[in-house]
Design brief:
The chain is of the alpha/beta class and 277 residues long. 42% of the residues lie in helices and 15% in strands. The strands form 2 sheets. The chain has an 8-stranded parallel sheet with strand order 8-7-6-5-4-3-10-9. It has a two-stranded antiparallel sheet with strand order 1-2. The structure holds 6-hydroxymethylpterin-diphosphate. The site of 6-hydroxymethylpterin-diphosphate has 22 residues, from strand 3 and strand 7.
Length: 277
């Protein structure tokens, strides 16, 4: 399995660790915020040295309750950081945005992949843009919007509903010309889901994998991990994240999005080594 990007092919035979670089003042994990371009570039170099095979840059927080950021503000935060990071590292860079205009400008500055937490639902121009620009796109499941998603998440059967949604969004992407080999699916753990629902999705990740596209999982330091640890804040969720990353990789995730690529690269290597032995 392979993802073709402008920075070269990204092999997925081994799970890829994606480092999170947020050019935001308000992301839920303060240590993941890198709004200063020089500091972001230094963090990027460290993440790649630690084992990140890709970096995900975002300039709009999607934490529960977050309000949308206007396009000019998102670009004003993102582009200086993207330029500095692009100069500093050669790994593929993905852009965490739901806006086609932000994606278009970022792709022109050397970004490789679009990571859309709305799976093309918030901006109808985003998937056609990915098709035209021939770049891979991550399609994630979320119930509602970041502002509302944790208010009252409601599912009859979360596993079935998330799978049906992801299958439908993959077909929508293909219908506007995104090749199947450029689609990545993500069940959106923590996005409009309780801890129990996120757990159910992790246990049945084989069903998402069975849709036939590479699967990305983002569990890093999320609230459901804190809840399982008695309400621990994000700073105390590193080992809890390791447990969830291990489960995700053993269930078939090919990409894991994390704030701590060094430690999580070890987790991935050990899980894969044990599964092979
Ligand atoms: N999680 C976050 C943001 N983007 N994208 C994908 N594909 N999957 C995820 O699970 C995911 C994501 C939330 O984490 P973070 O970026 O650290 O926080 P914030 O949204 O507050 O900036």
């Amino acid at each position: 399995m392979l993802l073709q990007t402008r920075s070269g092919p990204l092999g997925l035979d081994r799970a890829v660790v994606i480092g999170v670089l947020n050019a935001t003042p308000d992301s839920f994990y303060p240590e993941g915020r890198h709004a200063d371009p020089g500091a972001a570039a230094a963090a990027a170099v460290e993440m790649v040295a630690g084992g990140a095979g890709m970096l995900d840059l975002g300039a709009e927080s999607s934490r529960p309750g977050a309000q949308p950021v206007p396009v000019e503000e998102e670009l004003g935060r993102l582009l200086p950081v993207l330029r500095a990071v692009r100069r500093a590292v050669r790994v593929p860079l993905s852009i965490d945005t739901t806006k086609a205009e932000v994606a278009r400008r970022a792709l022109a500055e050397g970004a490789d992949v679009i990571n859309d937490i709305s799976a093309g639902r918030f901006d109808a121009e985003l998937l056609p843009l990915c098709a035209r620009e021939r770049v891979p796109v991550v399609l994630m499941h979320m119930q509602g919007t970041p502002a509302t998603m944790q208010a009252a998440p409601r599912y009859t059967d979360v596993v079935h509903e998330v799978n049906a949604f992801l299958g439908e969004r993959a077909r929508a992407a293909e219908a506007v010309g995104v090749p199947p080999g450029a689609i990545v699916l993500d069940p959106g753990l923590g996005f409009g889901k309780t801890a129990a629902e996120s757990g159910r999705l992790l246990r049945r990740l084989d069903l998402v994998v069975g849709l036939g596209y590479p699967v990305l999982v983002g569990v890093s330091r999320k609230t459901f991990i804190g809840n399982l640890l008695g309400g621990r804040p994000a700073q105390g969720r590193l080992f809890g994240t390791a447990a969830a990353v291990a489960l995700a990789v053993s269930a078939g995730a090919r990409l894991v999005r994390v704030h701590d690529p060094g430690p999580m690269a070890d987790v991935v290597r050990v899980v894969e080594g044990l599964l092979e032995s």
